[in-house]
Amino acid sequence: MNYITLPTKRLLLRQMTPDVYRHAFENLPDDALKFFFGLNADEELQQKKNTWVNGLTTFNKSFLYFQLLKKDTEENIGWCGFHTWYIQHHRAEIGYVLTNTSERGNGYMKEAITEIVKYGFEKMNLHRIEAFIEPNNTASLKLAQHLGFVKEGYLREHYLKNGKMEDSVVFSLLKTEFNPIEITPHL
After folding, report:
1. pLDDT by residue (tens digit) across 121-140?
2. pTM of this prediction?
3. Of 98, 146, 150, 183, which is most buried with the most CB atoms under 10 A?
4. Which strands, in side-by-side order, build the sheet including 5-7?
């Protein structure tokens, strides 16, 4: 399968769509799936399989995200993209994580997310990108503000994480507000 990739200075951003998932799950053995998705344990692979079996899209909602691959090694260090994409409303919720914790603090997410936001507005025809961030996640709060996201409010007990309801700070960025020239990743 040919994958759409976006290059940045240090990363290759490999596009992940429902079609890519279908191809992977129908053609790759478990060890290859773990490598492809950047998973370390059999339990993580089973969780990914369960997500696939239970369905990734509905008639009006989908996802599109990118794996973060280091250019020099093609090691999968995380993902960034739109996990809740309301196609007919031209809006999506952005999510991101560095699964390789040893790479945190090196500016990879700032480098990736700038391209992903640009892609969302230019290629996906998004009008609005939303971010829901845990109030104590200082790094994510700073990243959203750096990109020009505007704080809109606070949602109480919005997400279930590890069996506990957690709050979210709501941010948004409109297409008319985004200026990638003003964003200078500190690499």
Report:
1. 999 999 999 999 999 999 99
2. 0.82
3. 98
4. 5-7, 11-16, 61-70, 76-86, 91-98, 128-133, 164-174, 150-161
